[in-house]
Design a protein that fits this description.
Elements (H helix, E strand, L loop, with lengths): L10 E12 L13 E10 L6 E9 L2 E2 L3 E5 L4 E4 L15 E9 L4 E10 L2 E9 L2 E3 L3
Antiparallel strand pairs: 1-2, 1-7, 1-10, 2-6, 2-8, 3-4, 3-5, 3-7, 8-9
Length: 137
């Protein structure tokens, strides 16, 4: 008789992640964005009283990375920015656009902070709560 195992990671989050510039007249010109610089910062909070492991990967048109593990302590916070994308070992010449996927054994608070600007600094900012997807029944 076959037994079904419960997945270790029961909660999943997929946050849009953008790290790029659109500079008209250069090789960094794209039709997808208005001229400017675009950055994402993702904040992950563990609201529980125990430490646990979670895993993350990048899914994008240039490829899908391998899972990367991370520990998060009680009431702990992880922050991922465009600088941390190199940990996922996907190479993009002119920026990145895709999703950061997080899987966890426990429910998390996940917030995405999006900024857009130009040489003068940040012109727009948006903060978005990332909804969880339940993988375990």
């Amino acid at each position: 008789m076959a037994t079904s195992r419960k997945p270790k990671f029961c909660f999943q989050y997929a946050a849009k992640f953008i790290c790029t510039s659109n500079i008209p007249g250069t090789s960094q010109t794209t039709d997808a964005f208005q001229p400017g610089n675009y950055q994402t910062a993702l904040n992950i909070h563990n609201p529980h009283e125990t430490k646990f492991e979670l895993r993350m990967k990048i899914a994008s048109p240039i490829g899908i990375s391998k899972w990367i593990g991370a520990g998060i302590g009680p009431d702990g916070v992880l922050r991922l920015t465009c600088k941390e994308l190199k940990k996922f070992r996907l190479r993009s010449t002119h920026g990145f656009e895709g999703f950061l996927v997080i899987e966890s054994p426990c429910s998390l608070d996940v917030m995405a902070v999006y900024t857009a600007g130009n040489k003068g600094g940040v012109e727009a900012m948006d903060v978005e709560y990332v909804k969880e997807r339940i993988l375990c029944a």
